[in-house]
Amino acid sequence: MTVSAQNTTPAASAAENASANAAATSEPDGSVVLEGVTKKFGGAVAVDNISLHVRPGEFLSLLGPSGCGKTTTLRMLAGFEEPTSGSIRISGQDVVGIPPHKRNVNTVFQAYALFPHMSVAENVAYGLRQKGTPKSEIRERVTESLDLVQMRSFADRKPTQLSGGQQQRIALARALINRPAVLLLDEPLGALDRQLREEMQIELKLLQSRLGITFIFVTHDQGEALSMSDRIAIMRKGRIEQLDDADSIYDSPASAYVAGFIGQQNFLPGMITNDLQVMESPFGVLRSTSTHPELEAGVDAQAAVRPEAVTVSAITDTGAATTPTADNRISGKVLGVSHQGETLQFLISIGDSQTLMSRLPRPSAPRLAVGDAVMCTWDAASVHFFPSEQATQAQADIARAVSHPAPPTSSISL
Ligand SMILES: Nc1ncnc2c1ncn2[C@@H]1O[C@H](COP(=O)(O)OP(=O)(O)OP(=O)(O)O)[C@@H](O)[C@H]1O
Ligand SMILES: [Mg+2]
After folding, report:
1. Domains of the chain, residue spans
2. Which protein residues have their CB within 5 A of the ion that is ligand 2?
3. What is the pTM of this model?
4. How confident is the model at residue 127 (pLDDT cuts 50, 70, 90)?
5. CB of residue 115 inside a 6 A radius of ligand 1
């Protein structure tokens, strides 16, 4: 599959931009503001009252499962769809009703091909040619753009003579040739294999930092979003569930959905006590350093604990006798051990139908076998409590998202 850019800026000259911006608000170049944006297709709501402020020069990812409204949001920014209601401003300019080629944005899609009959240089030059830019200037800017993605020596090749990653770079060069204030990227690395994808993630991030262009990056790959973004908007059913930097999203998830969607979680049921940071569970007392605004004493809740926060140690006869009882300690039996490269993963039975997952770096992980009696412990800081219903619904939605991954982007003609 090929990856390419769609040029959406050619008509916007510097003079046009300046006059448009003069009439607009004082929001700086490269800022993107959505306020109360909704998009309906017929009766179906694809994007549901989203408000989002993207800072100039920011790398912001829209992350969420298939069908949550990521592409629709991006298409409204690019001008390929108009919102049903709400306002959108780019660099302070109200862009609703303005056609794509007059917006100071470019888009890189996964599914659009480069022109196969044109050389790499001709593909990159396409937008400038359409605008009637003088030949000498085109030559200079194509060279500059190919240099940005380290592809100058490939200028005379056809796209079919390039690897997926190289085609991807050409798509980027084509999108960047007009130096848009904002670059929109819709799963641009989706077609690449894992190793190339990881290399391209680093390259893209470096390129973005160097150019200072605002990137709005759509992905359903959490690792990709975590590794590249200044901030991540976690989307679910047309809404933004949390907008934060990677650390905050990982360490302080605002909802059970965010907690479970980013990384993995063990969910343990129980009831909140008078101390809202303490939960009684059938497995013991669980303590957190935080509480949830909707939780009060006596309410059913679920505690979320990440596998990598759970430490496991073998219970020896002497050890068991001398271990003081404390919160966040649950005993169990090893059900399985799996090797995952740098980590060892343990599945532990802690009750008739309850298991706990632990994932530990291999050098420090204990050598345990199936059937061993173990003690699982973790810090209160790594426990988050959520209302029980919210946690159950979140787990069901996440399971559905995992069992119905994003469909392939190629279209089927019947
Ligand atoms: N042109 C359209 N007409 C009708 N419904 C649409 C249209 N485009 C998108 N939708 C619907 O809007 C919802 C959001 O779609 P969107 O393409 O934005 O999802 P997405 O988050 O990009 O998903 P994916 O990860 O699969 O690409 C989906 O339910 C989709 O079926
Ligand atoms: Mg999409």
Report:
1. 31-250, 265-402
2. 71
3. 0.84
4. confident
5. no
